[in-house]
Amino acid sequence: MIEALDHVQLAAPRGSEEVLRAFYTGLLGMAETPRPPALAARGGCWFEAGSVRLHLGIEEDFRPAIKAHPGLRVADAEALDTLAARLADAGHPVAWDDSVPGVRRFHSADPVGNRLEFLQPAG
Questions:
Q1: Beta strands 115-121 and 52-58: pairing type?
Q2: 65-75 pLDDT, tens per residue?
Q3: Terminal Cα distance for the chain, rounded
């Protein structure tokens, strides 16, 4: 049966690959990974960090999801604070949310509006 989450697919508008690369590799520190040639021809890009894999695929009638998002766990509380500051300094929204007991988290968005959650279990 199911044993792990392999990747999360997010959508993006055509022509957004360069701003996505700058965000996911530059701000978040993820590595871009090559895609199979048949998929590379469709546009988009793939990123990974440790066991986390995000695929951004081109959607012709792109609209960012309002509620759907990946929850990305960071290394520790200091890393969470550093990432929040880095995103805010780069002009990305940072909305802290304390509604989940035992978890420090905030939401932000990538350059095309995909909602992202960054979290760290408290304590």
A1: unpaired
A2: 889 999 999 99
A3: 32
